[in-house]
Request: fold
Amino acid sequence: MEKTKSKFINTTLIDALSPEPKEGHISVINGEIAEISENTLSKNSDFQILDLKDKYLVPGLWDVHTHIGKGIPDSEARDETTAERTIRAGNNCRRALNLGITSLRAVGEKDFIDVAWKEAFASGGYVGPNLYTCGWFITTTAGHFLKSGCAIEVDGPTEYIRTIREQIKNGVDFIKLNLTGGVMGPKWDKMPNTFPLEDELKAAFGICEQRGYKVVAHAGGVDGIKKAISMGAHTLEHGYQFDDESIDMLSKSQTYYVPTLSLTHMNRGEEFADSEFQLKWMKAHPIDESYKERAIEAAIMHASGFKKAIEAGVKIACGSDLDLPYGALFETEMLVKCGMTEHQALTAATLTSAKVCLAEEKNGTLEPGKKADFVILNSNPLENISNLQDVYMVVKDGNIVRDYSSV
Reply:
């Protein structure tokens, strides 16, 4: 992608650093923010000038719980070829970018498809989001997520260690470990159930610590949540069932919480849709009646625990666990619906998510020296978080990758 020099002038700037928007101008050189000013930037004929009067400029959004190749029913996923899933994964990533989701973390993908696309986007040969990877979803025999085709079943400390070393060898950024069941699965795959044994967990977390890799922990039930936190998981994914002790543990730990509220709330059925946008997605993603009942029950617990996590000061990021590309847009809505302010939700979807991916030095806020990854909106997201859907323009590395102004 060719680098450009640009000035984005007369816009309203909004990021995690202040709950108050401010009027200003941003100068971009070689894909990074060079200057931010409340005064008119100096004239320079080498710069492309974009006048964004009455527009709102926010940092690019993140979804840190995705499976980039998702897009077909689980019943078909195990039988498709790696080539088919690879093509869909790349298209999904680019579709997300076009909506202003400039960064993704893939938390379970087959055959290191996520690593391949990360390298392809980073090379500049393909336009896509910043991508952070976990490779395979590591679970036990009779574990979780088996129908996806993205789970690898391992048993015993030796297999855990070997598998994690294979992940490292193939270039992943994080290690995804499955500790418990989930909302949707066969009768033996329920959220309260913890799958790995103590010696398996110790081996898995031990080799990650030795090699300097942070653990992404799927944990839905209370027992698994407490094990994940006590063993030093970098992120806790889902957290469907909290008790007061686990909330207290989480608030005092270094573990980030990625609640994936969309997974329970968006799978409850069309009668729970809050907007035409949500209803359209639900109609396109019908769910089995038995799973829907489980999602309705889980959503109540999920929202209750999430609210307690906010009150306790837990570090919360934005991850949806929905098919791309719309996940982050739904998740920010759910973050607000379940208790966050608009500014807290925007912070979760930008700065906190960048911290989750260890990328906050270059991403997540509007500051000189950071990457020029922006979403330019027609409406103020601090007035209504759904305004993140009202996209005027998407900028990645200082370049306009999608311009809706003439659509």
